[in-house]
């Protein structure tokens, strides 16, 4: 075999090897099983809308680097855009409370605005959120603000689990706030 075909074959193999991409890993904020919580509630909370900052509202996971840097992870993706992931996770958590699906439950609408959704591998997952709710049968609305921060391990999986914990705490706070008109907004943790 002459030298030219060997060089072409090796060049072709090198080019094909360079075209290989790393596999994409998908993550979700909806835990595998929803926690069964507390006493039965007479509320049915419907998550109307979730808004997240545009910097992180994408399919790829975005992590914070240093004080001002962000990195878009091209091989670590959410199962959906982040606003949809947060909405699905909250809806799942809020529908898991006893009595939430009963016909006699009082209907409450919920709007959520995520002000910060920070992911710092090896340090923490942070959720800074404002939520507003209103009962379908009243004209009054109430809004609350909460900042949640959970330590996270070095892996993306550990970071996602920390965000799931933040959303679980948020759902519990939303339920406790809406459980009684006498309840005030919860403190941040």
From TrEMBL:
<dbReference type="InterPro" id="IPR005586">
    <property type="entry name" value="ABC_trans_aux"/>
</dbReference>
<feature type="domain" description="ABC-type transport auxiliary lipoprotein component">
    <location>
        <begin position="31"/>
        <end position="174"/>
    </location>
</feature>
<dbReference type="Pfam" id="PF03886">
    <property type="entry name" value="ABC_trans_aux"/>
</dbReference>
<protein>
    <recommendedName>
        <fullName>ABC-type transport auxiliary lipoprotein component domain-containing protein</fullName>
    </recommendedName>
</protein>
